[in-house]
Write a structure and sequence with these properties.
single chain, alpha+beta, Arc Repressor Mutant, subunit A, 2 domains, four-stranded mixed β-sheet, 7 helices, 4 strands, binds FE2/S2 (inorganic) cluster
């Protein structure tokens, strides 16, 4: 079955279009809308957005492949992004990453077997003053320690 937004998200899409000078300018928010529903941007969604916005599929694909926040493959229910840029690295980010990999039994870029968590690294998330930090879905967790990470990951595995 072809991809389609839910009626509620379709209304949201129409609302988004009123806020931009042209349809092409709405590519990023419309892709976010699709990803919120589907979890990742499949080729089918690329064509859907292309048709909705009257832009070439190559434009949509270019946006999807440029921004790391767009998932190009199926991902876990929860997204964990550990910042690895210098301020976080100096305050132990690589230990946090290794700790996450051990606890979850996956390497960065992979998803746990139960589909609950995808682990990734990120470049600076603008929270350097509270390094090391990570983003889980839409929420920041800062001043991380191994203990804090254990608690966060435990809750995600139970979700
Ligand atoms: S370096 Fe990690 S938030 Fe800026």
């Amino acid at each position: 079955m072809a991809f389609a937004l839910t009626p509620e998200r379709e209304r949201e899409l129409q609302d988004i279009l009123t806020r931009y000078p042209n349809k092409m300018a709405a590519t990023i928010p419309v892709l976010h809308l699709c990803q919120d529903q589907h979890g990742w941007i499949s080729d089918e969604i690329v064509h859907y957005v292309s048709q909705k916005l009257d832009v070439p599929p190559a434009h949509v694909k270019g946006v999807v492949t440029f921004y790391t926040l767009f998932n190009q493959h199926p991902v876990g229910k929860n997204q964990v992004w550990v910042c690895r840029t210098l301020p976080c690295a100096l305050r132990g980010a690589y230990d946090i990453i290794e700790h996450c990999e051990k606890r979850l039994g996956v390497k960065c870029g992979e998803t746990t077997k139960n589909g609950k968590v995808t682990l990734r690294t990120a470049e600076c998330l603008a929270s350097c003053g509270t390094a090391p930090m990570m983003q889980v879905n839409q929420q920041y967790y800062e001043d991380l320690t191994s203990e804090k990470v254990d608690e966060i990951l435990r809750k995600l595995q139970e979700s």
